Structures are given as structure tokens and as C-alpha cells.
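[job 0417] fold request received: Amino acid permease
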Amino acid sequence: MLDQGAPPKDRTQAAPPSPGFGARLMRRKPVERLVAEGGQGEGGALRRSLGLWQLTMISIGATLGTGIFVVLGEAVPKAGPAVTLSFVIAGLTALFSALSYAELAGTIPVAGSSYSYAYATMGELIAWVCGWCLVLEYGVSVAAVAVGWGEYLNELLDGTIGVTIPDALSAPPGDGGVFNLPALIVVLLAMAFLLGGARESARANTVMVAVKIAALVLFCAIGVQGFRSGNYAHFMPLGMAGVSAAGATLFFSYIGFDAASTAGEEAKNAQRDLPRAIMLSLVIVTALYVLVAAVAVGAQPWRQFGDSEAALAQIMRDVTGQSFWATLLAFCAVVAIASVVLTVLYGQTRILFAMSRDGLVPKVFSRVHPRTGTPRANTLIVSLFCGVLAAAIPLGQLADATSIGTLFAFALVNVAVVVLRRTRPEMPRTFRVPLSPVLPALGLAFCVWMMGSLSAVTWVVFGVWMAVGLVVYFVYGQRRSRLATPAPLEK
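[job 0417] inference complete; emitting C-alpha cells
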């Protein structure tokens, strides 16, 4: 029964005034809340089943192979023999950012990767921009890699049964084709693995990573037999500008080392294992990239690159004079590139999972299937989108668009690690970036420098993408954000 003599309640205390426009853009999600919500989705939770080995294999699977098997043929004409230096520069850029990723992954072990790190440090608008870049990075790189897969599939078919898929069905419009059917097929195969669960996908990926490492070691063992020192006579024929331009393109080949950070809510011991997996994978990948690039340029004059995206298979054929080794390498490349598609597609679904849980994209992306513990609807939607994109857009445009989105996201991570050091210095960190803020500042500078090396067309595409993202945010995300609705008062 109500107390008639009680004074009326002050309703203004129960409904505080809405924050201003600027405050809404800068609202941050506390680290503790991010971690507490880890794994939780609509109707279920992600399952923690991945250890250090699986996390490392996810990062290597998402990274190793893309630049060597697909993009090398495009980068060599830009830099000449100095493409090895381009790989080193791109690797250093990735290394500085990897250090920042390692610290934040151990501190904020959630599925959102750099999107979540930005949400905790720089506010919702910056987080949205970062997440939108990640959609470009992961989603478009899946399509770009899938395009290259068709090249090696044709090499394999030609060497085994003597037939190839017609250009009309194996190349996208603009490259002499109508519809790239192999690219769509490999994305759908990866989708099938992901729908089975994270543990099952990790097992398949581990096998594929072993195959791709064996393929690259085999290439080096055979390719070095055709090594000609004269191919390095003019090491930097196009100058430092060419090295920089090639490095910006080759940065595409380092996309994926941060894939382990998207598995933060499915790792058994995320705070311990994520930093280790990120750093270990980057060291392995960089060493293999530089070694293979050095052998490839030594075995074939640099002016002969660029005619085919299946460059390594062609070198194997030229060195040995036999089609067997080239066919074997093509088989390994088919498996290797499929693992990149699998792991990067995995990362894309987990980014959207985190953004959906925060209300910035529709809830369907955070709906978890109770039996498999995976975001099934999310996986289906993303896979179909990436598959159609892969079948319709030329590889070169995709690679550069992916690089600029990635570099922008990495730049934000380098800023985020410094901000979190200043705002939350007391937080426990399982890994700390040495010489901070110097190394994060170098990471930021390298990212900006490499972004400046990309073409004007790429910048236009990026600008249009960002404009579309801001429209989506202000029309949908800002209003539906979970931070827009104050949490109910505790009793």
C-alpha cells in the first residue's frame, strides 16, 4: 500500500538529462564491461576451446600465403629486386602495430579486436570508424584472396587433367571474365567449416597451415637452384618511391596477424596466449616472406613478374623444366590460400559479432547457435557477401582498398595503447609494449607513411567507404547503441 503522506519522488533523478551530441560521440565502453560481456551473444555464448597453438595457427593461417602466392607478382614490377626490402618495411610496420595489439589483446581479451580497443579508449565514433575499417579489411581481403585462389586452381587442373576453367568463369569482370566461380566456391567451402564450430575450423586450419609452410620450403629448395646473382645487379631500379609503393601493396600480405585477437572470447586463456600468438605468428611469417621473395627474384628477372598471379608455380616450372613440381606447388597453394580465406572470414564474423552486441549493427550478427556455439546467421550473411564480391571485383583494386583500411585501423591501435596507458595505468597487463610511447608512435608514423604511398584512386575508394560508414552510424548505430540506453538502476 502506498504511503499517502510520503513526498512525491523527484523524477528528474530517475531520468537524467540526455547527454549532448558531442558526449554521445565520445562515450566509451568501460574495459570491465567489455570483458564481462565476453562470449555472450543473442541466445547463447561462444565456446572457449582454443589454446596457444590453435591461436598461433589462426594468425599464420590468415597471414601466410597471401602476399607470396598472390600479390608478389604485382609488387615486384613496382620495386624490382628491392621487393625484399619492401617486405621488410611492411613487416616493420606490422611489427610496431603487433606490439600494440599484443598489449591490448592481453588487457582486453574480447572478440572485437581493434574495434573494442578503440571503444574503450577513444569513444564510440572512433570505434565505429575502426570497426568499419575492419569490415573493409577482413571482408574485402577474403574476396581478394579468393580471386587468387582461382589462378592456382587452374594451374592444378592444367597439370593434372590437362583442362582449365574458362576465363569467363574463372576471372572477374575487368580481367577478361564474367563471373569468378572458383572464388565463390572457396568462400562457400570456408563457410561450411566455420558453421561446424571454432574448434573444428581450427583443426582444419592447422592442417592447411602445415601444407602451406611445406610448400614454401619446397619452393625455396628448388627455386634456389635457378638463382642468378645477375638478377640483383640493379637492386633498386625504381628508387625508394618504388620500394615504398610495393611495401604499401605488400602490407596486404601481413593482414591477418591480428586474427588471433578476434578469437579473444573463444580462447582458453586469452590474456596469456593472445599476445604470444600474435608475436610468434608475425615472426614466422616475416621470415618466410623475405626468404621466398629473395629466392623468387633470384630465380626470375624482375621484369618478367606481373603476367600471372600464380607466379611461384611458373618459377618452379621454369627452373626444373618439368610441370610436376609446379603442379605440386599449385596444389599446396590451393590448400594454403583456402586457409587464408577460412581464418580471415572467421575474423570478419567475430568483428561483426562484437559490433552487433554493442547495438551498432543488427542483432542478427550476434545470434549464437545453441548447438555449435557459433554465430550461424552472421557466418552465412558474411560468406555470401564476400563470395559475390570475390566473383565480381578485380584483385588489384581489392588488395589496395584492403591495405588502406587495415593501415588506418592499425594506426588507431597504436594510439589506443598510449591512451589506455595514461587513463588506466593500474590495469594488469600480461604484455607491455617496450619503450612506450616511442614504439607506438613509430607504428603510427609507419602506417601514415604507407597510407600516403597508395594511389589516389585507393584514397577515393576509402573516402567513399568512410562516408557511407558515417551515414550508417548516424542513421542506425548511434541511436541503437547499447550505451544510448542507460543501464537500469540497481535496487
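[job 0417] notes: The radius of gyration is 23 Å. Confidence is low (pLDDT under 50) at residues 1-16, 487-491.
[job 0417] exit 0
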